[in-house]
Amino acid sequence: MQRLGTATAIAAALALLVGCGGSKQPQQGNEAALANAQQDYQTQLQAMPEGSRNAVFIRAIRDAGFNCQKVDASAATGATSWAAHCSDGRQWTIAIGTDGLAHVTGNPEQVPATPGNSS
Fold first, then answer.
1. Among 14, 63, 70, 59, which Cα is nearest to 37's?
2. Where are the alpha helices (DSSP H) in the chain?
3. Based on CB atoms within 10 Å of each CB, which residue in 13, 82, 115, 118 is the most buried?
4. Is the pTM of this model over 0.70?
């Protein structure tokens, strides 16, 4: 998780540089650097063992204010998005922005179906 935090700090510094560019050419270079930084996040997540990646995702879910006791599975669903499955049955989508921040979406009110529960 520390490596992902370090990458976030680097991306934030790169984002500040984008605002300082005076000419069109340097700005294009900075946009490419940001795209590369986002790719680095994805590469790091893909390279992690699933247990480590799940630990990153549980932190993202909890930091977003949602409840999840354990992420028991995760998989890439796109170039910048991941699906995370919590042990309580809830599903979350985690999108990694160009700034390295995780954007968590899902339905926290959804109560997973259990045997004998006909809600």
1. 14
2. 2-20, 24-47, 50-63
3. 82
4. no
